[in-house]
Amino acid sequence: MSRQTPVYYYSSASGLVRSFAERLDRPVLDLSVRDVRQSEADGPWVLLTPSYKTGNEANDTIPEAVRRFLRSPVNRRRMVGVMGSGNRNFGRYYQHAARDIAARSGRPVLFEFEIAGTPWDVEECRRVLEDLDVALAAGHHPAA
Ligand SMILES: Cc1cc2nc3c(=O)[nH]c(=O)nc-3n(C[C@H](O)[C@H](O)[C@H](O)COP(=O)(O)O)c2cc1C
Questions:
Q1: Which of 20, 33, 2 is closest to 86 using CA atoms?
Q2: Signal peptide span per the entry (predicted)?
Q3: Contact (Cβ atoms closer than 8 angstroms) between residue 122 and residue 57
Q4: Structure confidence at residue 1 (pLDDT)
Q5: How many angstroms does the Cα of residue 78 sit away from the middle of ligand 1?
Q6: For the chain, what are the domain ranges?
Q7: Which residues contact 9 (CB under 8 A, 6 or more apart)?
C-alpha cells in the first residue's frame, strides 16, 4: 500500500470540517493544535480549510492557523493540493480561502464541499486522495 498522504485541516468550534476530516480514513492533523501548526510536514500533504469572511477591509477568508502553518517554506513546498469547505450563500467568496491559497501556491484545488459535506462527498474525497497517493508513490508528482 502506498503512503497515505496526510490531511492537515482547520476547523472552528462548530467542527464541521473536523467531522468531515475524521471520516477520511487516513492520518488527519488538526491545525488548531499549537504543536501541529508549529510543526513541519515530513512529506507531501494536503490542506483542508473552511473559508471565513471576516468583514474587515481586506475580507480575509483564510483562518489564522492555516496562515501560520503556511508561513513555513518547507510546508509550502511540500503541500501538494488544497481542499475546501464553504457555503454558497457567501457568493463570490464561496471557497475563497481554498481557492486563494491554491492560486497563490500554484497547487490544485483537489476537492470542494459545502458545510459538513454529504456521505457522497466523503466517498468522493477518499477516492481523490487515494488517486493522489498512487500518483505520488509512482513519482508522477513534483513533490514526490
Ligand atoms: C462567520 C462565517 C463566515 C463564513 N465565510 C465564508 C466564506 O467567505 N466563504 C465560504 O465559502 N464559506 C463561508 N462560511 C461557511 C464555512 O466555511 C463553512 O460552514 C465551513 O463548513 C465551516 O467549517 P467549520 O465548522 O469546521 O469551521 C462562513 C461561515 C461563518 C460562520
A1: 20
A2: none
A3: no
A4: 66
A5: 26
A6: 7-137
A7: 17, 18, 21, 28, 29, 30, 31, 47, 48, 49
For range 89-97, the mean pLDDT: 96
Determine the pLDDT at residue 60: 87
User: Residue 8: in which H helix or E strand, if any?
Assistant: strand 7-9
Say how many Å lie between the CA of residue 87 and the centre of ligand 1.
6
Does the Cβ of 20 fall within 6 Å of ligand 1? no
The mean pLDDT value for 71-90 works out to: 98
Amino acid code (one letter) for 45? W
Q: Which three cell numbers stand for residue 34?
A: 499549537
- 45 strand-pairing partners: 79
| Class at the top of the CATH hierarchy for domain 7-137 | alpha beta
All 3 cell numbers of residue 143? Answer: 513533490
Ligand 1 atom 31: residue of nearest CA: 52
